[in-house]
């Protein structure tokens, strides 16, 4: 199994430097990962260093709480797209989901999808904060709003990707959209299990270890 092709090589630490992001991009190209995933401030830098390669630039939106105004998420998306981002990983309006305000959740996602102007939107539902019923409703909202992926976690919440959650999301979305497992993925065995359960993308900072590659390029983070 070519695990590298599933991996979004991720660095979202607030203390990340320009050198760290350049290193991240070099590693992603070297190991032929699907994408790098960075904070919005580094969208243009990552896109520049990935230009002419097959590695995509993914940028987080409304991260990590999802609690900002929809209009702000839309502005983030538009700026990221201007900076040549290929994919946007947005966090849902979690408090609206917990309150059962699914029209609000869906509209929040839909506005981001429209602002993305064709760039792929991955929707982080933060599974560690949701009941199974809420996960089902969130998955339906993601599909209804027209996003390309449903994603489990930010990696900053109370739990990460689990096989049980991937199986549940697969039951909801089927093959209509992709499923990104993220949060706490550290080993090849974990990755294989999540893919077998239905994950089509993996968000992790341990991509080199998982893919069985060599040590990170110099200037590691």
What does the model show?
With 221 residues, this protein is an alpha/beta fold. It has one domain: TIM Barrel (Alpha-Beta Barrel). Helix content is 43%, strand content 17%. The protein contains nine helices and eight strands. An eight-stranded parallel beta barrel has the order 1-2-3-4-5-6-7-8, surrounded by seven helices. Helix 8 (188-197) links the parallel strand 7 (178-182) and strand 8. Helix 1 (18-31) runs parallel beside helix 2 (43-50), helix 5 runs parallel beside helix 6 (132-145) and helix 6 packs across helix 7 (163-173). The radius of gyration is 16 Å and the shape is globular. It starts with 6 loop residues before the first strand and ends in a 10-residue tail after the last helix. The model has no long low-confidence stretch (mean pLDDT 95). This is Deoxyribose-phosphate aldolase. It comes from Sporomusa termitida.
SSE blueprint:
Blueprint lengths: L6 E5 L6 H14 L3 E4 L4 H8 L5 E6 L8 H13 L4 E5 L2 H5 L3 H15 L3 E5 L7 H14 L3 E3 L11 H11 L4 E5 L5 H10 L3 E4 L2 H5 L10
The strand order across the widest sheet is: 1-2-3-4-5-6-7-8
**CATH topology category name:** TIM Barrel
Sketch the major β-sheet: 8 strands, parallel, barrel
- The radius of gyration is 16 Å
How much of the sequence is in beta strands?
Answer: 15-25%
Number of domains: 1
Into which percent range does the helicity of residues fall?
40-55%
| H-E order | EHEHEHEHHEHEHEHEH
Just name the CATH architecture. Alpha-Beta Barrel
Summed up, the helix count is 9
The separation of the N and C termini measures: 27 Å
Overall shape: globular
Which regions are unreliable across 5 or more consecutive residues at pLDDT < 50?
Answer: none
């Amino acid at each position: 199994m070519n695990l590298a092709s599933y991996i979004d090589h991720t660095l979202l630490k607030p203390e990340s430097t320009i050198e760290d992001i350049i290193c991240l991009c070099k590693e992603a190209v070297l190991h032929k990962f699907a994408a790098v995933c960075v904070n919005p401030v580094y969208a243009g830098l990552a896109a520049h260093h990935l230009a002419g390669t097959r590695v995509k630039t993914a940028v987080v939106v409304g991260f990590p709480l999802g609690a900002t105004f929809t209009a702000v998420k839309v502005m983030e998306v538009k700026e990221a797209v201007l900076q040549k981002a290929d994919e946007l990983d947005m966090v849902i309006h979690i408090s609206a989901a917990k309150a059962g305000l699914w029209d609000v959740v869906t509209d929040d996602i839909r506005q981001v999808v429209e602002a993305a102007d064709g760039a792929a939107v991955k929707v982080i539902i933060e599974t560690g904060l949701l009941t199974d019923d809420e996960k089902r409703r969130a998955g339906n909202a993601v599909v209804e709003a027209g996003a390309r992926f449903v994603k489990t976690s930010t990696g900053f919440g109370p739990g990460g990707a689990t096989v049980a959650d991937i199986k549940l999301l697969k039951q909801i979305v089927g093959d209509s959209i992709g499923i990104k497992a993220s949060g706490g993925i550290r080993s090849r065995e974990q990755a294989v299990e999540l893919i077998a359960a239905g994950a089509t993308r993996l968000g992790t900072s341990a991509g080199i270890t998982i893919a069985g590659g060599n040590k990170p390029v110099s200037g590691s983070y």
